[in-house]
Amino acid sequence: MLQAYSLFEGSFSVDVSKKFIPFDPAVDSKNDRPVSMFIQVHPFLIETTNGLVLCDTGLGLTNSEGKLLLYENIEKLGYSPKDVKYVLMSHLHKDHAGGMVSFTDQVGRIAFPEAEYIVQRGEWEDAYSGINSSYRTEIFDVVQRSGNLNLVEGDGKVNEEVEYCLSGGHTQHHQTFHINNGKDHYFFGGDVLPEPEMIFKNHSAKYDYDGHLSKKLRQEYWENGAPNDWIYLFYHATSIAIGKPTMQFDGSFTVIEAK
C-alpha cells in the first residue's frame, strides 16, 4: 500500500520580486499585497515498498533553533530524515529545492543523507546557467559534492514503483512523477499541475517557460488520470493538497480530498 502525506510548510504571497512572504489570512489582508499570488507550499512524503519518497523539498524554512521545518514534519509522522530513500525533484526553483540541503552554523550538508536525489540533467544545467534568479546554486553545490545526486534524462524508472517523465512546461526540463504499485497510483505534477483549480480554470500562465504546453499537459493529466483513480499531489494548493477524482451525475469528474 502507498500512503502520501503533506509536509505543509506555510502560506505565502509572491509578487514580481519572487519573494515568498508569509501570509496568514487571519491577520493579513490580500488588499495590502497587490499584484501578488497567494499560494501554499506542500512537499509530500510517500510510504512505498522501497522506502520513503519525498516529492520536492520546500523553501528550506527553519524553526527558531535552525532545524528544518521539513525535518519536524517528517518526525511528526514517526520517521527520521535518514529514512528517506528517494528525493524526487520536479525542478529546482527555490521554493521546491530549498530543503535539499540543511545549513547549520553556515555549513551546508545534504539534508537526506541516505536518499538518492532524482533531477533532470537539463534542469541541473539550467540551474547553473544564470537564466533565472529562482535558482540557488549554493544549495546545488552541496548536493553535487554529496554523492547523492542522480541526473536522469527524459523518461524512465527509479524502481518498480516510481517513474519520472520529462514534461517541460513550467521550466524547460521540468519533470513529473508517477508513484504506482498497481493498486494505488499517485501523480505529482510539480508546477505544471500545482493546484486543483487549474484543472478546471485552465489557462496559459506567464510564469511558465511554455505556458501553452503546461495548459495542454494539465488537460492530458486529468483526462488520463481521472477515469483511472489517480491520486493527485498539488504542491501549491490552497484548498486540496491530496485529491482524488470523483464522478458527478453528468459523467464528468471533480476533485475531492483523498482520505
Write the layout of secondary structure elements.
Blueprint lengths: L2 E4 L3 E5 L5 E3 L14 E5 L2 E5 L2 E5 L13 H8 L7 E5 L5 H4 L3 E4 L2 E4 L5 E5 H7 L9 H10 L2 E4 L3 E2 L4 E5 L8 E6 L4 E4 L8 H4 L10 H15 L5 E3 L8 E6 L5 E5 L2
Parallel strand pairs: 6-7, 7-10, 10-11, 15-16
Antiparallel strand pairs: 1-5, 2-3, 2-4, 5-6, 8-9, 12-13, 13-14, 14-15, 16-17, 17-18
Cofactor: Zn(2+)
Keywords: Hydrolase, Metal-binding, Zinc
Family: Belongs to the metallo-beta-lactamase superfamily.
Provide a quick synopsis of the model.
With 259 residues, the chain is an alpha+beta fold. It has six helices and 18 strands. It is globular, with a radius of gyration of 17 Å.
Would you give an account of this structure?
The protein is built from six helices and 18 strands. With 259 residues, the protein is of the alpha+beta class. It is globular. The mean pLDDT is 94. The longest helix is centred in the last third of the chain and has 15 residues, at 211-225. It has helices spanning 69-76, 94-97, 121-127, 137-146, 197-200, 211-225, and strands spanning 3-6, 10-14, 20-22, 37-41, 44-48, 51-55, 84-88, 101-104, 107-110, 116-120, 149-152, 156-157, 162-166, 175-180, 185-188, 231-233, 242-247, 253-257. Strand 13 (162-166) and strand 14 form a beta hairpin. The two termini are 14 Å apart.
For the structure shown, list the relevant keywords.
6-stranded mixed β-sheet, alpha+beta, 7-stranded mixed β-sheet, 31% strand, 19% helix, 6 helices
